[in-house]
């Protein structure tokens, strides 16, 4: 399936408009990207899974062509969960395969706890279970890796630095963190820069981090998740240590984890064929 058959559309949910790219027909597979990304992060997965699913790759609120509410309070997990529920129902489905990476993974975990009946399978890439992440933030090694989160709490300064030299920091984040430096072409980097250059995007996306410590992401009590779950983990993640994955089975009843060595945080972009195969193996079991 080619990009020519990808379709751009919007959906109104939870009082805002969300943009998405879709391809294929069948059961719903909903894909949630991370920071600093947009739907484009799933460019290698969309055509693969459109053979069997209606794939919908969202721009999360605040990103790219989705609405960017002005209030900082609009960027909390309760609102993200309402967005996803509204998308599933608004597209005419009563359940989906939910796939999330980075911040999209955090939303996917929380949504699975809130509405397990709406998910057939959960696939999370390089974002630990929230309870394990909370544990990690109490260790020196993860606090060092997560130093950028604390920098993002500052007003204005992060926005100014990210914009410097034509968003040079975005290129540094993608190419600098990747193990395979050919993962991101110049066109890929331009796509990410253009998405972040859109008005109000920077503050909106940083607001996800600015609300982190006020919305229970690091303090909630987590029960046992009953949704069948696959965690895919690039082992050379500079932002999130592999040790954050250890013991996840304590929180997930039907859990499978697959590690990918010599692969960075950008796992589905750096090792797309392997990620796609691991996802297929899990979905076809």
UniProtKB/TrEMBL annotation:
Instruction: Tell me the Gene3D superfamilies matching this sequence.
Output: alpha/beta hydrolase
* Record carries keyword Hydrolase: yes
Pfam families, per the entry: Abhydrolase_1 (PF00561)
Task: Write one Gene Ontology MF term.
Answer: hydrolase activity
Keywords from the named record:
Hydrolase
Q: Which InterPro entries match?
A: AB_hydrolase_1, AB_hydrolase_fold, Epox_hydrolase-like
Which residue ranges does the record assign to the AB hydrolase-1 domain?
A: 27-269
Q: Does the keyword Lipid biosynthesis apply?
A: no
Q: Which PANTHER family does the entry link to? A: EPOXIDE HYDROLASE
Protein name as annotated? Alpha/beta fold hydrolase
Q: Write down the species.
A: Stenomitos frigidus AS-A4
């Amino acid at each position: 399936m080619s990009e020519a058959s990808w379709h751009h559309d919007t959906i109104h949910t939870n009082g805002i408009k969300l943009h998405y790219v879709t391809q294929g027909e069948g059961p719903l597979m909903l894909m949630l990207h991370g920071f600093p990304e947009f739907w484009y992060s799933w460019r290698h997965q969309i055509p693969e899974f459109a053979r069997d699913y209606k794939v919908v790759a969202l721009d999360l609120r605040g990103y790219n062509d989705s609405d960017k509410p002005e209030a900082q309070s609009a960027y909390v997990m309760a609102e993200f969960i309402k967005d996803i529920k509204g998308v599933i129902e608004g597209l005419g489905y009563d359940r989906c395969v939910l796939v999330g990476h980075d911040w999209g993974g955090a939303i996917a975990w929380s949504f699975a706890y809130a509405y397990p009946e709406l998910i057939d399978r959960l696939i999370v890439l390089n974002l630990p279970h929230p309870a394990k992440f909370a544990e990690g933030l109490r260790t020196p090694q993860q606090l060092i890796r997560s130093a950028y989160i604390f920098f993002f709490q500052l007003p204005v300064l992060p926005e100014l630095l990210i914009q410097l030299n034509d968003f040079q920091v975005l290129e540094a984040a993608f190419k600098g963190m990747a193990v395979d430096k050919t993962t991101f072409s110049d066109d890929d980097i331009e796509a990410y820069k253009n998405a972040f250059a859109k008005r109000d995007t920077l503050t909106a996306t940083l607001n996800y981090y600015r609300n982190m410590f006020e919305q229970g992401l690091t303090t909630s009590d987590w029960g046992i998740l009953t949704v069948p779950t696959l965690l895919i983990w690039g082992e050379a993640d500079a932002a999130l240590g592999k040790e954050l994955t250890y013991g996840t089975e304590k929180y997930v009843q039907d859990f499978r984890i697959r590690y990918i060595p010599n692969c960075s945080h950008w796992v589905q972009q750096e090792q797309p064929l392997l990620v796609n195969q691991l996802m297929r193996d899990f979905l076809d079991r």
